[in-house]
Each structure stands twice: as C-alpha cells, then as structure tokens.
Write a structure and sequence with these properties.
Elements: E1 2-6, H1 11-22, E2 26-31, E3 51-55, H2 61-71, E4 75-78, H3 85-90, H4 93-116, E5 124-130, H5 154-173, E6 177-182, E7 184-186, H6 195-204, E8 209-212, E9 218-223, H7 224-237, E10 243-246, E11 251-253, H8 254-268, E12 279-282, H9 297-303, H10 311-327, H11 333-339
Parallel strand pairs: 1-2, 1-4, 2-3, 4-5, 5-6, 6-10, 7-9, 8-12
Antiparallel strand pairs: 9-11
Helix pairs in contact: 1-7, 2-4, 4-5, 6-8, 8-10
Bound molecules: nicotinamide-adenine-dinucleotide.
Nicotinamide-adenine-dinucleotide is lined by residues 6-7, 9-13, 30-34, 36-37, 57-59, 79-81, 83, 98, 102, 128, 130, 159, 182, 184-185, 191.
Length: 344
C-alpha cells in the first residue's frame, strides 16, 4: 500500500513507519515537527526510496490538497496530534487547532480526493484515537467499542471531538473510515515527557522519580510494536465505519510501572544505592482519570490480532533503547529538565 501518514516523526508514527516499510509498504509522512516530532527517529529510513517526508501542518488545506494530488495514496493513517494531557491542562488551544480543526481539514481533503478518484473500494481513512475518550473507570469495568464518550481532559475532549467528526463522514458520505481507540503505548522513540521515558531518564540522572498522588491510577500498557502491527492489520482487514479498541492486556498502577523500571535498571545499570529511593509522590494532576482498561475481543475476532509482548520484556527493550541513546549522546537530558511535571 501507498500510505499517507500524518505525525510520523512522533512516537507511534515513527514506529509505524519502520514497521510498515519492513513489510514492503510505501510511506508519505506529513509532519509539522512540533516539539514532540523528532527527525532522528527516522534517520535510518531517510534515504529509503519507499519513504517521502513532507514537513507540513495538517491545518494548511491547500498544501495538504497538493500532497494528495502529487502522491496519490491508497490509504490514509492519521496520527498527527497534540498528545500530552498535562500540556492540554496548561493551554488547550493547539489541541483544538490540530486535533479538531486539523483532523477536519485532512478528512475533507481525503474525502475530495477519494471522490475524484471514483471512490475506490479499498481506500481507507484510519484515525488513531485513544481510550481516554471514554473517561475513567472505577476499580471494576472495562471499555469496549460501545462505551459512551465521557472525556475528562481538554486532550481527550479534543480527541473525542475528532472521532465524532470522522464517524460523521462515514454516516454522511459513506467515506470508508476506521477509528482506533488504543490504550497507553510504551516503547522506543517516545518523547521523554510521558511516564516511562521520563522516569528512565530521571533515574539515570539520580533525579526524583515523581509520581502523581499515591501512584494508584491504573493504565493498560500496549507495546508500540504490537500496536502498529494491529493498525496495519486493521487497515487490511477492518470493516469501514467500525471502531476498534486495541489494548495490551497489562493493567498496572503508575507506581508499579515506576517500580518495575527501577528493578530493571538495577540489572542493566547498577548503582551504589537502589533506584527506588528516588521515588517521590507529588500533588496529583487535576481531573486525573483513575483507571482505563480495554476489551480488545472485537479486534481479535475481526482481524485475528492480539498483543504479543510481555510487559517486562517490552520495558526491558525500551530501557535498553534509552540507555543506548544516552550512551551515544543522541539524547539530551536538558529536554527532561525543561519539561518536568506540572508541579515542578
Ligand atoms: P507524539 O506527540 O509523539 O507525536 C505527534 C506527532 O504529530 C509529532 O511528530 C508532531 O510533530 C506531529 N504534529 C503535531 N501537530 C501537527 C500538525 N498540526 N501538523 C502535522 N503534524 C503535527 O504522539 P504519539 O504518542 O505518537 O501519538 C500519536 C497518536 O496516537 C495521537 O493521535 C494520539 O492521540 C494517539 N494515541 C497515543 C497514545 C500513546 O500512548 N502515546 C495512546 C493512544 C492514542
């Protein structure tokens, strides 16, 4: 497939590109290169003849229209977004602009292109969303494709809004969309403002490992390579107009995740004092969702996918990747210092 991807310089996007190229697909990557887009994530494929990079903002309609005309993609995979909840609490303007308005521009351009091409049957517009659109669970319960939308942060509200617009294009125009609601991803190439890389890099500098509240919030963790393999399979076998919940079958509290990172670091990078001495509980994030959990039985049945990577194994791979980047000086610790947590 010739895949037009947005947000390919980010965490999931860059992992998607490496995986899709290895399967013989072609990629046109549209990315504005915001603070979280990192061209180094894609250094290894820069000269691949199946890879094209377009530095562009998805909100710029004429430029996006031109990219469709020039590259004639078979499918679209839309991941470009503002993606960090804490930043959306500080200022949500860019979240509404990119996640809502940008998605609308991209959808419109894709729809017009699809109509002009004579509505090819195998065209797909895959929109990557999050389980956060469903709000929070208590100690029990699980999200599935029929869960009501109850977003609690400006980030999840912007993603929920974009999901509804995407869905409406299927109902109104028969435009072949697929919506993916996936759980927390982890793995190599994630910008170090999110829990796992943030903790790894702070631990390596003997800085406090800050945990919100008491660290009791529960997330379902999905290894990014498992996720991108699900996305390709859904593109090939998913039913237009459907949404799919994709999860990692790994529910852990934030504190458990931080403790596991400490245990693995003790082996990979031993120090005189244990890493878990650095754990520090800080004031909780406002409106912090308590628990997310994902029932992925629909995607298992419809496209025969389920997560394969054991969390400890995936976390070990992730930590090794960051250790490697730190040891060859390709990762700048100042980034971590600059962002910090909201409470810093
Ligand atoms: P990321 O922040 O690492 O990457 C986002 C990418 O989008 C960056 O490369 C950035 O430069 C680009 N971008 C931002 N605004 C743009 C614009 N206006 N025009 C063009 N490019 C722009 O995010 P991620 O973690 O890789 O997430 C990718 C997608 O997956 C997002 O839509 C996010 O909501 C969704 N998602 C992420 C997770 C997760 O755990 N990371 C879980 C579920 C869903």
């Amino acid at each position: 497939m010739k895949i037009l991807l947005t947000g390919g310089a980010g965490f999931i996007g860059s992992n998607f590109i490496l995986y899709a190229l290895s399967k013989g697909h072609q990629i046109i990557n549209i990315d504005k290169l915001t603070y979280s887009g990192n061209p180094e994530n894609l250094e290894s494929v820069e000269s691949d003849s199946n890879y094209v990079f377009c530095k562009q903002d998805i909100c710029c309609r004429p430029e996006i229209e031109n990219i469709f005309v020039l590259h004639q993609p078979d499918v679209v995979v839309h991941m470009a977004a503002e993606s960090h909840v804490d930043r959306s609490i500080d200022n949500s303007e860019e979240f509404i602009r990119t996640n809502v308005l940008g998605t609308h521009v991209l959808l419109d351009c894709a729809l017009n292109y699809w109509i002009q091409k004579g509505r090819p049957n195998n065209f797909r517009f895959l929109h990557l969303s999050t389980d956060e659109v469903f709000g929070a669970l208590g100690i029990t319960g699980i999200f599935n494709e029929n869960s009501p939308y109850k977003p609690n942060s400006p980030y999840s509200a912007s993603k929920a809004s974009s999901d509804l617009i995407v869905r409406s294009y299927f109902k109104t125009y028969d435009f072949p969309v697929l919506i993916i609601n996936s759980s927390n991803n982890y793995g190599p190439r994630q910008y170090p403002e999110k829990l796992i890389p943030f903790t790894i890099l702070n631990a390596l500098q003997s800085r406090p490992l800050q945990v919100y509240g008491k660290g009791t919030q529960v997330r379902d963790w999905l290894y990014v390579r498992d996720h991108v393999s699900a996305l390709l399979q859904i593109l090939e076998k998913g039913t237009p107009g459907e949404s799919y919940c994709v999860g990692g079958a790994t529910e852990l509290t934030n504190l458990q995740v931080v403790q596991k990172i400490c245990v693995i670091l003790e082996v990979l990078k031993p120090t005189k004092e244990p890493y878990d001495r650095l754990i520090k509980f800080v004031q909780d994030r406002p409106g912090h969702d308590f628990r997310y959990a994902i029932d992925f039985s629909k995607v298992s049945q419809d496209v025969n996918w389920s997560p394969e990577t054991d969390f400890t194994k995936g976390l070990e791979e992730t930590i090794k990747w960051y250790l490697n980047r730190v040891s060859n000086h390709s990762l700048n610790f100042n980034v971590v210092k600059r962002i910090g947590l909201r409470t810093e």
